[in-house]
Amino acid sequence: MLSTEDDILRAAEAWRHEGRSVALATVIETWGSAPRPVGSHLLIDADGLFLGSVSGGCVEGDVITEALDVIGDGRPRTLEFGVADETAWRVGLSCGGRIRIFVERVD
């Protein structure tokens, strides 16, 4: 298990060196009781394998799905989840708070 955000960034470099297509999701803003701090990362490869966390399990599934699209089309995305969002109950942020995540392909 990776223990630091630097470990995840090193893994991104290693995965790219192996020829894997990858995306990096980064928490860029939080409000309220978001479970991960700004700067937290989730690394995803084209097969859906991942390392790290951007929400402690609340929104990872949706972020991975978007990351696979980012790997495919190369267009970065900013995702936002929260209790005021229509996806709040589906993704599990019912505890409150909001989170904004930037997803980009790592070339």
TrEMBL record:
- Out of the domains of life, which is the source? Bacteria
InterPro entries, alphabetized: MoCofactor_Util/Proc, XdhC_CoxI
Query: Species name for this entry?
Result: Methylorubrum suomiense
The residues covered by the XdhC- CoxI domain are 15-82
One Pfam family name is: XdhC_CoxI
Q: Which gene encodes it?
A: pucA
UniProt name for this protein:
Xanthine dehydrogenase subunit A
